[in-house]
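Supplementary notes for students who missed Thursday's class. We covered one full example, reproduced here. Read the sequence, then the structure, then the short commentary at the end.
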Amino acid sequence: MNLAKKGLIIFCAVLTAAMPTNLFAVELTEEQIGNISSNCSSIKLQLQNVQRIDAKSRVHLGAQFEAIANSLMMNLNLRLVKNNKASGEIAAQQAEFSSVRERFKRDYIEYQKELESLIGVNCKDEPYRFYEQLEHVRGRRDDMEWSIDRLREIADEHRESVQSLREELYSQEHPNE
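Structure (token representation):
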């Protein structure tokens, strides 16, 4: 081997040895590490409680979103098309609502997987890994919350569009009022 290759190999070996073992780990203070380790059992119970509550909320929200999509938006669009009063705006809202509802379902599944993984981490012995996984769970929860917020926004926009359509149809049927 030539001298340049040997030097490069030695440099890489020294660099690798000098790198921290957990390069992407979050910086935690000794107090935070101690709190995570010493309160591990309590933290796990709280996480399991959050998991149960979130599952109930998911069922409740899922049922509400399903009712809005099928009983309200889809039925209204079908009725409007049947009566030759189709509204592109209302149809677009229905399509976006359905798309975001599917995203909500995927986001929730990913969130649950990450939460289950977090609960499985031994926080007493692996506080850094636990905290990193906690950050992943928070990110997934943020994704899920974005979907919920967007679904509510679309539902509000849809309500306003329906109200405008109602007023427009009423004025067409009663032009002198």
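Commentary. The chain is about 85% helix and 0% strand. The longest helix spans residues 127-173. If anything here is unclear, bring it to office hours.
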